[in-house]
Write the structure tokens for this entry.
Amino acid sequence: MHAVEQLADNLLDNPEVVPVDRLSRRETRPGAARSFARHTTRDMLTIEQQVIGTALGSRDSGRAMVDNLAVDRELARTRTLLPNSRPWSGS
């Protein structure tokens, strides 16, 4: 078990690995507690920022427009979404 924790610590100490969750002081020490927090990489954060920037930059472009009534009809018909998973409707 110690070898696995050491491998995890080595990975999480890499400067390219970034914690996503806020870590309490207890979780910043080496060991298993820190490895349960979610992490990503600097490269992934850069890609995510580019994707979000592109999406926000094209918000009012008229692309990928769907009628609100069509969305409401489909959401009402779809039974696979739980009530807390349904997005709010703009209509």
About this structure: The chain has one domain: 2-85. Helices lie at 2-12, 32-35, 42-57, 68-77. Residues 2-85 form one domain.
